Structure formats: structure tokens, C-alpha cells
């Protein structure tokens, strides 16, 4: 009987400690996320079309792709009335009508500078 009560009391204490500790945690980031996780600033057309937001780019010797507005695109793809004309590392160029749109990824902030190699 004593063991059962002690176990229940311990389980309750651990539960409430875990609940209160969970509220104090800082935001955890995904260590496997691409280095350009901060995305780009949203491009808003003067015509009021849907904003375009670049999330990531992938540049390889045989293929290039990007994620714009949570959609994977390649050169020649259409997204929200714009055609993808070029994909470079950290940058996508689109054309909407006569308007050229360049989306660039924002680099993450550096917490401390690199040490000198000397």
C-alpha cells in the first residue's frame, strides 16, 4: 500500500515538474535545416499580387531547384503568375509580365566572428 501511494505521489510530482519546466524552454531549432533557414523578405508586387517568399535554393551540377511560397520550382516553372528564369545559390529570378523579380535569401546572423587563421 505504501509503495503504491509513494509511486503515485512521485509520478504526480514528476508530471507537474515536467509541465512547469516545459513552459520555461527556449525555442529549439532544427539542426538538420539548411543554413539559409531565415528565408527571404517577402516580395510584394506594386500591382497587389500575392507576395513571393523564397525559402531555399538547391544548386547542383545536373539540376537547380528552389522553394518559393512552399512550392518546389525549377527554371521555367510558373508560380503565382510569375515564371522562374534563373536559380542561383541563395537567389531566384522571376519574371511577371514586364517586371523582373529577384528574391534573395537572408543570411543567418553570425554569433561570433571566425578566428584568424594565423
Descriptive terms for the model:
single chain; 118 residues; alpha+beta; three-stranded antiparallel beta sheet; 1 helix; 7 strands; 30% strand
Separation, N- and C-terminal Cα atoms: 69 Å
Share of helical residues: 10-25%
Question: Uncertain regions: pLDDT < 50 for 5+ in a row?
Answer: none
Largest sheet report: 4 strands, antiparallel
Tally of helical segments: 1
Structural class: alpha+beta
Trace the largest sheet across and list its strands. Answer: 4-5-6-7
Tell me about this structure.
By secondary structure, the protein is of the alpha+beta class. It is 19% helix and 30% strand. The protein contains 1 helix and 7 strands; from the N terminus they run αβββββββ. The chain has one helix at residues 2-23, and strands at residues 54-59, 64-68, 71-73, 78-79, 82-88, 91-96, 99-104. The chain has a 4-stranded antiparallel sheet with strand order 4-5-6-7, with no helix packed on it. A hairpin with a 4-residue loop joins β1 and β2. It is elongated, with a radius of gyration of 24 Å. The chain starts with a helix and ends in a 14-residue tail after the last strand. The mean pLDDT is 75.
Amino acid at each position: 500500500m505504501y509503495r503504491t501511494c509513494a509511486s503515485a505521489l512521485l509520478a504526480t510530482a514528476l508530471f507537474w515538474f515536467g509541465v512547469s519546466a516545459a513552459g520555461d524552454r527556449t525555442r529549439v531549432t532544427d539542426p538538420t535545416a539548411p543554413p539559409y533557414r531565415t528565408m527571404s523578405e517577402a516580395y510584394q508586387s506594386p500591382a497587389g499580387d500575392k507576395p513571393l517568399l523564397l525559402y531555399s535554393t538547391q544548386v547542383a551540377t545536373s539540376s537547380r531547384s528552389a522553394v518559393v511560397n512552399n512550392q518546389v520550382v525549377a527554371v521555367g516553372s510558373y508560380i503565382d503568375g510569375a515564371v522562374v528564369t534563373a536559380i542561383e545559390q541563395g537567389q531566384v529570378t522571376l519574371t511577371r509580365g514586364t517586371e523582373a523579380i529577384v528574391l534573395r535569401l537572408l543570411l543567418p546572423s553570425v554569433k561570433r566572428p571566425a578566428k584568424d587563421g594565423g
